[in-house]
């Protein structure tokens, strides 16, 4: 990997998500070059969906993030799924092919078998399918207060480690952080994918005016007994979890790579947090407005992709 790798940063929470800014800052802190390309709205739960893709023009608007301390970082939003954006950028839509893809930081854990629905994970696996080293990063919702600065420092440590020990082909690295990551490097560990995630869904129904029935799913923190060694239980105990997600027919990374990566992450681990001012309760930003359309993704207005 190059001395200053180009890292595509995307997400499924949309361009206005705090976690997206945190991810871009982390990439830059790790000594890499962030390129942010994200959906113009929330696309959570779209997994590896491409939608109406073949032959459809996708318009990307440039966004000014200088107010977020990221002056000079190219930032684009587009009305498309995360996996679609990864596919386009991987094929040269904005010039150079990225050296790495970081999907996140998602606001909400992505652990257990439910990761198959996650568009954060889906974006990372799409990159892996294209042969680009990738990771998905999520922060749990055990607390309404997220220590974003400390999360950025942890993500920067992971990205810097991956620049030296790239993700092998055939999958993606799934990283989950508690809302207040541990300052002890022993608090990060490899964990297998758990049988259940950290939340459990339940169906609610109501009768609409006119007599029709409407239903919805709501999610609460799981009350199930979780696997002691799985990623879900470890996250709820306050660990930062590393989980390998393999694409079909892909070999499992050897223990040597897993051990070297873990050691490099721990070597770069933040030993202390920042003041209480770093704590934030929201996950939406204000002021991320589009500026102009880059020539490489311009299209005729009648072909512009709207909500997939």
TrEMBL record:
EC number: 3.1.3.5
Region: Disordered, residue numbers: 283-308
Reactions this protein catalyses: a ribonucleoside 5'-phosphate + H2O = a ribonucleoside + phosphate
Positions of the Survival protein SurE-like phosphatase/nucleotidase domain: 7-191
Keyword Isomerase: no
Any one GO molecular-function label of the UniProt entry: 5'-nucleotidase activity
Pfam families, sorted: SurE (PF01975)
InterPro entries to which the protein is assigned, alphabetical: SurE (IPR030048), SurE-like_Pase/nucleotidase (IPR002828), SurE-like_sf (IPR036523)
Keywords: Cytoplasm, Hydrolase, Metal-binding, Nucleotide-binding
Family the entry assigns: Belongs to the SurE nucleotidase family.
Stated name of the protein: 5'-nucleotidase
């Amino acid at each position: 990997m190059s001395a200053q790798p180009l890292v595509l940063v995307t997400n499924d929470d949309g361009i206005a998500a705090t976690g997206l800014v945190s991810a871009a800052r982390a990439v830059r802190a790790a000594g890499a070059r962030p390129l942010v390309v994200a959906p113009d709205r929330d696309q959570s739960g779209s997994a590896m969906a491409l939608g109406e893709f073949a032959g459809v023009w996708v318009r990307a608007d440039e966004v000014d993030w200088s107010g977020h301390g990221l002056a000079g970082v190219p930032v684009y939003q587009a009305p498309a799924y995360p996996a679609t954006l990864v596919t386009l950028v991987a094929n040269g839509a904005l010039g150079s092919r990225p050296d790495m893809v970081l999907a996140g930081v998602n606001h909400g854990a992505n652990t257990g078998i439910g990761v198959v629905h996650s568009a954060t994970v889906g974006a990372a696996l799409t990159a892996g399918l294209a042969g680009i080293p990738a990771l998905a990063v999520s922060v749990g919702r055990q607390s309404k207060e997220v220590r974003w600065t400390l999360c950025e420092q942890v993500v920067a440590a992971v990205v810097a480690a991956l620049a030296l020990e790239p993700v092998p082909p055939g999958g993606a690295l799934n990283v989950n952080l508690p809302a207040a990551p541990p300052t002890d490097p022993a608090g990060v560990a490899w964990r297998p994918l758990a049988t259940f995630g950290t939340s459990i869904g339940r169906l609610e129904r109501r009768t609409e005016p006119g007599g029709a029935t409407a239903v919805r799913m709501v999610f609460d923190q799981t009350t199930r007994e979780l696997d002691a060694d799985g990623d879900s239980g470890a996250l709820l105990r306050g660990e930062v979890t590393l989980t390998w997600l393999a694409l079909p027919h892909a070999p499992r990374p050897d223990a040597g790579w897993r051990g070297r990566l873990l050691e490099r992450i721990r070597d770069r681990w933040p030993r202390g947090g920042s003041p209480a001012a770093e704590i934030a309760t929201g996950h939406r930003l204000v002021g991320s407005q589009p500026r102009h359309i880059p020539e490489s993704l311009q299209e005729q207005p009648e072909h512009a992709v709207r909500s997939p």
